[in-house]
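Hey, can you fold this?
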Amino acid sequence: MTVDQLAVLCRRLADDTDAVRTSPEVRTLAESIVGRVRDGVACEELAEEFDELELLLLRAGHAAGLGPVRSYERFPGASDGRRVLEVLACPAGVCPRVEVPDAEPVFCGVFRQPMVVTRLRS
């Protein structure tokens, strides 16, 4: 589950008002995890750190922690045909985070780079 947790952390890092940015204790651990990922440490090797970050978020009253929030709505652009669907993905290919392309660039909170366009076929 740690790559999923990295995707959630990446999304949360993009929000200046999120606890991973505003709470000093949470931010310190989040930055440590992010730094290690940038240095090439595999997510699986950071399982204990992700668990600790999850606990800090839960203790601070953030019920979602690092759990993915699932939406069962149709993904924008999906259809019944064989169209190409473009999504934004992790620039390093490390986590499963995807976002809908927008006029403004979407940045990866871990690698501090724009997310990259990836084409999917339906």
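Oh, and this one too while you're at it.
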Amino acid sequence: MSNKTMSEPVQVLLPPEWPTPHPGCQVCGALALQRDEAQAAGDYSKVSDCNVEIREHKDAHPRRRR
């Protein structure tokens, strides 16, 4: 006998906000430009790749002391 009940609904989260490039960093700026061009072309896989690279590259920048 097969189970005819429905499973629980899938919870889909909103994607995280895009990371902000570090001010004055040429690498972050170039990645942000690539991301904008990819979005305009509808290449959301590349947009995601650029976001990951910006997020990881920002970790290389020194943190401001409070």
